[in-house]
Amino acid sequence: MAQEEQSSRSIYTDLDDGGSDEEIDKWQRTFRLWRETLREHWGMLTDELSVKLSMLTVAGFMLIAIFAPFIATHQPLQRQYQGEAGIIIEDWAEPSLLGADTEYLLGTTAEGFDIFSQLIYGTRAALLVGLVAAIFTAGIGTLVGLVAGYYGGKVDDALMRIVDFLYGMPLLPTVIVLVAVLGPDLWNIILALIVLQWRSTARVIRSQSLSLRERPFVKAAEVAGAGDWHIISRHLAPNVLPMTFLYGSFGIAWAILAEAGISFIGLGDPNTVSWGTMLQASRAYSALSFGAWWWFVPPGICIGLLVISGFLIGRGYEEITNPKLQ
Amino acid sequence: MSGKEALLEVDGLKKHFKVNQGWIASLMESFGSGEPDYVHAVDGVSFELREGETLGLAGESGCGKTTTGMSLVKLHEPTAGDIIYDDQRLSEATDAEIKKFRQNAQMIFQDPFESLNPRMTVYDTVAEPLRIHDIPNETARVQRALEFAELLPAEHYFDQYPHELSGGQRQRVAIARALVLDPDFIVADEPVSMLDVSLRAGVLSLLDRMTDEFGLSVVYISHDLSLLRHMCDRLAIMYMGKIVEKGPTDQIIENPQHPYTQALINAVPVPDPGVGRDRVELQGEVGDVIDIPTGCRFKNRCSEYIGDVCDQVVPPLEQKTEFEQDVACHLYESAAGYDPYEEMSGSPSAAETGDGAESTPADD
After folding, report:
1. What was the ipTM of the complex prediction?
2. Do A238 and B119 touch (CB under 8 A)?
3. C-beta atoms of A12 and B106 within 8 A
4. Are B202 and B240 within one domain?
């Protein structure tokens, strides 16, 4: 009875009776809002010269990775010539860039592989490790952080003890053990990196969602009857997303560095070329003492460029998420 | 009284929060050393909200008025007691009944800068409750709600984000969000205290229209008595989680009976330097809400302290013989013939907690 009395005084009565077809096209609207937000962020991000250069660098590496078969002059793991005893140490081909009379742009390794082609194909491995590891670490970390922060209590305790446990494990030694157990495969390295790297994202996202869930707009959604998933996906996630992107972009750089390190100490995938395995091979054949700098300098520069670009983009994005840094 | 039907009844509501001591303390506790501490935020509050009425909840900071308000919209699960809505005890309600209650109970928060999701547009914010409850005519309803909240033209605000709006506009958006479901009652928690004085009048008149045109019941939480006097039909004054005085606004403001209410009303500045009056100033701070004192909670600060009965017997909120409002104080005679002196044990425990006698002389 109380209900009827109320609805007769409602200002919506005529709407409910008549009904209206004038609904906003939700998809179109959502799409437009997303585009505006992205454009705004993009504008802020590319405002800075260092970020712009870093993005160009990353884009360049991506193009190289995609078109690697067309750019590379030789097969990266195909011996260009055979030495007498099967193992060639001193039979380098000097880079043609330096005026040597060979067909190899950056010379060959002591094993007879074309360095330029290895460098090109190495981009693929670096970007694959970087992107896949970053997407998964940021994704898992965000999900765990949101759930732990939102539900709190025992769920939070359980998840954060797992994170604490992972924090107790040193990165490189653990990856070495995991790779040793699972086998030296690029995907195993990626898996090991993901297992260990989501911890920091999870912690940060958890602390963010802990504070977000006490904010009045979350309370308002609760009062309106929103369920847990609704609050997590509509109210918490969009507000921690910039942080996720930030950790993702840092994650790319970390993963590439870690992969190079693991490959350098000889636990890399012997069947794929990466910059790390190139460095490892150059060390194994003492390229430094033979003065064959064209073997180890180019992959070193590439690793440096890509990692610095990743950090600079992350840094630029950090300024968007945290305006106090500007 | 007004004779209107009660929309919502609050029956002995209690909300205690466990004091978080960290895991070492809770480990010790599980081995049996000591009880956990509780903050008695709301400690036995009963009132009713009638249809179309505005009820004011007043009191100092920390008296439990916000916790009461949040419990009313089920943001807190009560420790004890119950809320009865539409003849239904909410503690026994099914999920569907809770969902219906959620449609009819809304809240407006104090801080308009925090109560809107910074990553949602005005349209999405206001439409969200409709989407949760699957209510049709979304666009038209959102538009109507925004227009009611005097955000005109409504379409202009659809795609704006909270950071593009002023404090007053944000609070209007929050009000539109509360109204869009066409609720039965709204809890307004200090809805204008964070706004510039120049914007308050506009938002207040909007809240006024809300009760007039919507036929809404509103629970208005504030520490500002002059504002409550302007807005409310009835008032309830809270102190340390309990209601000490409850009744029609005019009665309470013009003729306060509880010593605490008298002190509160005395603290309201009068904009006329010529008006002289006897000031009753409150001494000290609100008491300890973890270790609740025995007897009357106000005794240590009370200017009318009358000795052991205040120390030992908790004064019930009841009808008194001499005036209209309900008061929880031993100074006045109960209309129902309740005699607090019967409950006095004369035990020496009164001496332990009787430190109130030091600050205010006992007069018996």
Report:
1. 0.81
2. yes
3. no
4. yes
Query: Is A303 among the domain residues?
Result: yes
Q: How many CA atoms lie within 13 A of B349 on its CB side?
A: 11
Measured between alpha carbons, how far is B227 from B233 in angstroms, rounded to an integer? 12
CATH number at residue B113: 3.40.50.300
Distance from CA of B259 to the nearest CA of A (A): 34
Residue B138 located in a structural domain = yes
Containing structural domain, residue B141: 49-77+90-250
**Which residues of chain B does A7 touch, with a Cβ-Cβ cutoff of 8 Å?**
182
Nearest to B227 by CA among B245, B253, B247: B253
Q: In CATH, what number is assigned to the domain containing residue A181?
A: 1.10.3720.10
Q: Find out whether the peptide bond into B153 is cis, omega within 30 degrees of 0.
A: yes
Please tell me the distance from the alpha carbon of residue B99 to that of residue A186, in angstroms, as a whole number: 51
Residues B53 and B184 placed together within one structural domain of the fold = yes
Residues from chain A contacting residue B181 (CB–CB below 8 Å): 224
- Dihedral sign, Cα of residue B228, residue B233, residue B238, residue B241: negative
Q: Are residues B265 and B224 in the same domain?
A: no
* Domain-located, residue A84: no
Give the CA radius of gyration of chain A. 27
The shortest C-alpha distance from A252 to chain B (Å) reads 26
Q: Which of B132, B159, B174 sits opposite A230 (nearest CB)?
A: B132
pLDDT band at B276 (very low <50, low <70, confident <90, very high): low
DSSP β-ladder status, B318-319 and B326-327: antiparallel
pLDDT of residue B348: 44
- Same domain for B113 and B167, yes or no, is yes
Domain of A309? 44-66+111-325
Tell me whether residue B6 is in a domain. Answer: no
Same domain, B244 and B334: no
Task: Tell me which amino acid residue B77 is.
Answer: E
d(CA B299, CA B240): 12
Domain count of chain B?
A: 2
According to DSSP, residue A114 is labeled B
The Cα–Cα gap between A178 and A201 comes to 21
Q: Is A218 a member of any domain?
A: yes
Whether B40 is in a domain gets the answer no
Q: Residue B352: how many CB atoms within 10 A of its CB?
A: 10
CA A228, CA A234: separation in Å to the nearest integer? 10
Over the stretch A252-307, which tens digit does the pLDDT of each residue have?
888 999 888 888 888 878 788 888 888 888 888 777 777 778 788 888 999 999 99
- Strands of chain B (E only): list them: 6-18, 38-50, 54-58, 80-85, 88-89, 105-108, 185-189, 217-221, 234-239, 242-248, 318-319, 326-327
**Strand-pair partners of B237:** B58, B245
